[in-house]
Amino acid sequence: MLTKTQVRQLYRETGEAQGLPGFVYTSEDFARAEHEKLFARTWMCAGYAHEIAQPGDVLPRTVAGVPILFTHDRSGQIGCFHNICTHRGSLLVPEAKSGAQTLQCRYHAWTFDLAGNLRATPHWGGHNEPKANGFDRSCHGLKPVRMARWHDWLFVNVDGNAPPFEDYAAPFLKHFQEYDLDQAVWTTCLPFDINGNWKLVAENYLEVLHLPYVHTVLAEAAPFQEHDVITDGACLGTVIDTGLPASWSEDNLPRWPGIAADAQNAKNMALFPNFKLVIGPDHCCSMVEFPQGASKSHQRWDFYFVGDGGQDARYGAARDAIIEFYRKTNVEDFEAVEGVHAGHMSPAMTGAQFSGVWEGAVHHFQKLVADAMVED
Ligand code: FES
Ligand SMILES: [Fe+2]
What number does CATH give the domain 44-157? Predict the structure, then answer.
């Protein structure tokens, strides 16, 4: 774990601080501790409403090492529960499914509805006797997991003790107030697997100093010196007033309501620890890390365009151009991140130095990690 000296060095001014040492990124012990001390205690993005769009859809996930389950019940509600049977703890739903009326445990056939209520307990009180004296089914429903929904994105707080999502995320949410995200229509998902710690993937996103060296095309369109750095509570990121092509194809995609026809601005904002949203005048892309131990990360990028019009076939070339632009940028980043991860295996990696001008968000991110990991 981190020593007091390491924490003290981290908490100096950005330009004088020493960052987190290599083992924080490469130790499996540290990665396991993150489950309990960090991921379970905060708000993690863990799913998408479009994945459970219909009543009867159920979606298992693992967050903070804990199996959870999203459900879309018959009344149209999206719920989140611990994915374990309340009888003797069997995993309840091993894989996603559609059209489910109920959830039946494979072990002794306890059966739950999609709102989590326990509906059937066969032979519980004797042969062909489902009831037993003193046993109240209504006390043994699925255990809820605290969940918050923001547009398509589903966040969970596994330990149930984090501040309300609206408070926690307020510094992040305010950056998107001018966008009518109710108009965001999910279009496609790009999954990525990276040989690197999730924190290095996240940190890479939080600074623009690498643009001229890693992203030659992007750097021309969005020079790093034109970005502003944001650090505000759980919100970190960069914003730029220009930078995106004015047009991605001959047909201009529909823009967010109220966004100027010639706007080219982009916001790249992260909500600690694992959610990011990039938004341009006519699209947005969410980026979510799903940590896989110390040295691997799964990431998915989901693309949204504006309204039903943004799905029109005539904009196919424009949508493809945007998605390919992002995909190429991410592949360039992964090569860089994998190099950084390899370097962090060395005992000589005693902590990063930060540019006081450009790397304030990386420094802030590391302090948020340290805040979570040194308590107790
Ligand atoms: S463990 Fe699920 S019914 Fe027994
Ligand atoms: Fe990058």
Answer: 2.102.10.10
